Amino acid sequence: MVATSTLKTKSSECISELVDRRYKQACIEKELDFWNHCLAEPQSNAAVTEDRTCQQLAKMFENCLSRAKKTTLHCSSVLVPEKLTQRIACEVLRLASCEPCGLRGCVLYVYLEMDKGCKRLERIVYDATVVPTFELTLVFKQDGTAWPSLRDFLFMGTCFAPTFRHVLKLSPGFRLVKKKLYSSSAGTVVEEC
């Protein structure tokens, strides 16, 4: 069934034609209700889809930090400011919105800015079946104002290697760098948030 703006809503003529084709009337009415809702509120459906994508992207960032905690960062926990991954996800979606393939054409490099430079955490490809059209580099920032706890001082050098950090706290700020891959005239966009 195809819904168009000229569809007569639940008209007896339309329903009887479909019943004659052996469709169940309850199923027909349910379909018509769905399409009427879609036609009446197209913006709300797009907003729901965008919100769901934003949540999935935020979860990908959280999983990336969780994996990096064990492998790259060598710490017991990473403290992430509330809503940071959601803010980043919304910015990524905004930057991807003007691309030919949208988010599907994105390759995302995730780094953590530390005292001694940046440490690469992960490379995320949103959709591996699509040829990348742009790259985003996300740089999480370490919170430099956080004082190490007394427990960290006591553990240093006793049970753990000197490079071990017990807790890593992220700053609410981050940096996103966008690089287009398909255009030679396009420059690099740097966004500091």
UniProtKB/TrEMBL annotation:
Sorted UniProt keywords: Cytoplasm
Any GO BP: negative regulation of signal transduction
Location of this chain's protein in the cell: Cytoplasm
A Pfam family assignment: RTP801_C
Domain of life: Eukaryota
Gene Ontology CC terms, in alphabetical order: cytoplasm
Key word Hydrolase present: no
UniProt similarity note: Belongs to the DDIT4 family.
Role description: Inhibits cell growth by regulating the TOR signaling pathway upstream of the TSC1-TSC2 complex and downstream of AKT1.
Name the UniProt record assigns to this protein: DNA damage-inducible transcript 4-like protein
Species in which this protein is naturally found: Cottoperca gobio (Frogmouth)
